[in-house]
Amino acid sequence: MRLLQLNVHPLKSGAIRSVDSAAVLSRGLADDRSWMIVDATGRLVSAREVHATFRIVADTPATDSTVVGALRLRTRDGDGPADLEIDVPAGEPVAVRLHSQDLLGIPAPDADAWLADALGREDLHLVWCHDPTARRLQPEFSQEGDHTAYADSFPVTVASLASLRQLNDWIAERAVEMGEEAPEPLPIERFRANLVIDGDVPFAEDGWHRLEVGGVRFRVAKPTSRCVMTTVNLKTLTTAKEPTRSLARHRLVGGKTLFAAHLVPESGGLISVGDDVWAE
After folding, report:
1. DSSP symbols for 145-193
2. 143-185 pLDDT, tens per residue?
3. Which parts of the sequence belong to the MOSC domain (predicted)?
4. Cβ 27 vs Cβ 155: under 8 Å
């Protein structure tokens, strides 16, 4: 197998930033999901509630060498506020809520006005994860010391194009059964994986325990459960029934629809598109 895509998401629910190479740290890919948007209560505001966050292009020096600060924000279509560069915030950490987890983050107030202009809400704030090591992961699937920043569950996700091909076949078959027009095949970007690999066997990742990419080792923690965000078209921001409908039919386990797998780094290093991938 080979690594076909490497994706970093500096801003949680922001636009996907594809890179040629990425540093793997114990917390995941460098700068992945280090920033997130919260409301006035400190609760995560993601693309589940505000689809337009997908149009925010957030870059760091890890995703774009022209960034001179800690983070640059711009809108994907260029029709929003002017680009904004901010430095690492220096304030005191505040309580934030990521789904059911109480975490901490340092506010970046210089971004407040920019977010209000870009998303049309005055109650939004940007926070930075200053200490990923303080985050603990799901104990039944993790080991002592595993940690990450503002990813939903685990540091890294891997998705297979073989699995996507099977899913798109299921979607087309279901459309025929329902008398619907067959939709365009879903792109792998719907699943916002960090690592995208090729492969021959659909859902072979269900049986993997470890993965090695370009000499960097990962432990497979668990399959990735999918939410409504996968139903949002990343370009038009419209929603549809798929892939949830077909995943619920073919990949429903314990009340959760599954696609891709969560990984925890067991070593660090640089990985690059084109690297060989081994699984066991």
Report:
1. T---SS-SSSSEEEEEHHHHHHHHHHHHHHHHHTTPPPPPPPPGGGG--
2. 999 999 999 999 999 999 999 999 999 999 999 999 999 899 9
3. 130-280
4. yes
Omega into 10 within 30° of 0, i.e. cis? no
**81 vs 35, 57, 68, 112, CA distance in Å?**
19, 12, 19, 12
Structure tokens at 174: 């279901």
Amino acid at 151: A
Q: Which pair of structure tokens corresponds to residue 208?
A: 């993997």
> pTM of the entire structure?
0.95
Contacts of residue 86, Cβ cutoff 8 Å, sequence gap at least 6: 69, 70, 71, 72, 73, 108, 110, 111, 126
Contact status, residue 124 vs residue 112, Cβ threshold 8 Å? yes
% of the chain exceeding 90 in pLDDT: 97
The residue extents of the domains of the chain are 33-136, 156-279
Convert the pLDDT of each residue in 212-233 to its tens digit: 999 999 999 999 999 999 999 9
Q: Rounded distance, CA 138 to CA 63, Å?
A: 28
What is the C-alpha separation between 189 and 6, in angstroms, rounded? 11
196 closest CA partner among 237, 163, 151: 163
